[in-house]
Design brief:
Length: 305
């Protein structure tokens, strides 16, 4: 009597093993479909962010004057047709200064997020997957790290290091590591025991291939949202360091250094400090609105709420 086989088998060496089910595909395409369906209310923040990015990439095409062009006959001149945002104490056009300052401000914020995301994501990925005493040790260290206010830690690191653009980026990025590590760890711990991961492990997949092919792609959505929101925080920290003199001071000042220069002239030239501050505020609001919209599209729990 012939027996029926209810599951396909593959002969390997001397044992017959059942074939594993097809594993879920990487959710990158689904993520892109979600991003393409963002609400129209995000159009304005996206437009503002795009304009700032354009200023950072090609400031000479937008600014009517150079960052070092001075007009001795127009010191602290109010906004007018010649200088639409007024001039500073050296006769420089404030609009041109804001446009040229966007490059360093945005570069510091974006690079610091990349540093924090890379280091924190790697720590959270490894500790969440390995678990045990390694996870416990790293989490206790990160909890102590989080107990220190970010601004105090940033000032301490920036004071210890020589002022430069690289040190400024590393300082802000290192301070943000614990937040990315905790989010990544939580995602890994929620995914590593799912059936498709267990199936990969059962057929002999290595830990590296499981992390790269299954756990990491399924953990990208919350990390993307956190990184978007982190740009605003990094930009504010960079401006704060420049404001207190711990940032990079060169021929093209960033928005924080412009605020530092303007604080002595607030009573006689409000426009000198108002527009660099407005640029920082616009960047922070724009990325926060974009981050919240991404969270609503990529987080099913947010959709339910």
């Amino acid at each position: 009597m012939n027996s029926q086989v209810h599951a396909p088998f593959v002969l390997g060496n001397s044992l017959a093993q059942p074939m594993a089910r097809p594993l879920p595909s990487i959710p990158l395409r689904a993520m892109l479909r979600s991003l393409s369906g963002l609400r129209a209310g995000v159009a304005i923040p996206l437009a503002l962010l795009g304009l700032m990015l354009l200023c950072a990439l090609v400031p000479s095409l937008i600014a009517p004057y150079g960052p070092m062009d001075m007009d001795g006959n127009a010191l602290l001149q109010a906004p007018s047709g010649t200088h639409i945002l007024g001039t500073d104490h050296l006769g420089r056009d404030v609009f041109s200064l804001v446009v040229h300052g966007a490059r360093q401000s945005i570069m510091v914020a974006a690079s610091a997020v990349v540093v924090g995301l890379s280091l924190g994501g790697l720590i959270g990925l490894i500790t969440g997957y390995v678990g045990g005493w390694v996870d416990g040790l790293f989490m206790r260290v990160l909890e102590v790290w989080l107990a220190i206010p970010d601004i105090l830690l940033v000032i301490a690191l920036a004071t210890a290091l020589r002022p430069s653009l690289t040190n400024m980026i590393l300082t802000i990025g290192i301070v943000s590591v614990p937040r990315y590590a905790r989010v990544m760890r939580a995602q890994v711990m929620a995914i590593k025991h799912r059936p498709f991961v267990e199936a990969s492990r059962a057929i002999g997949a290595s830990d590296f291939s499981i992390l790269r092919g299954h756990i990491l792609p399924h953990s990208l959505s919350p990390m993307l949202v956190l990184a978007t929101l982190g740009i605003a925080n990094a930009a504010q920290m960079g401006a704060a360091l420049s404001f207190i003199g711990l940032g990079v001071v060169d021929d093209i000042p960033d928005w924080g250094f412009l605020l530092s220069q303007a604080q002595s002239y607030l009573t006689v030239a409000w426009w000198f400090g108002a527009f660099p501050g407005l640029a920082i505020t616009t960047l922070a609001i724009g990325v926060n609105v974009l981050g919240n919209s991404l969270r609503q599209k990529l987080d099913p729990r947010a959709k339910t709420r």
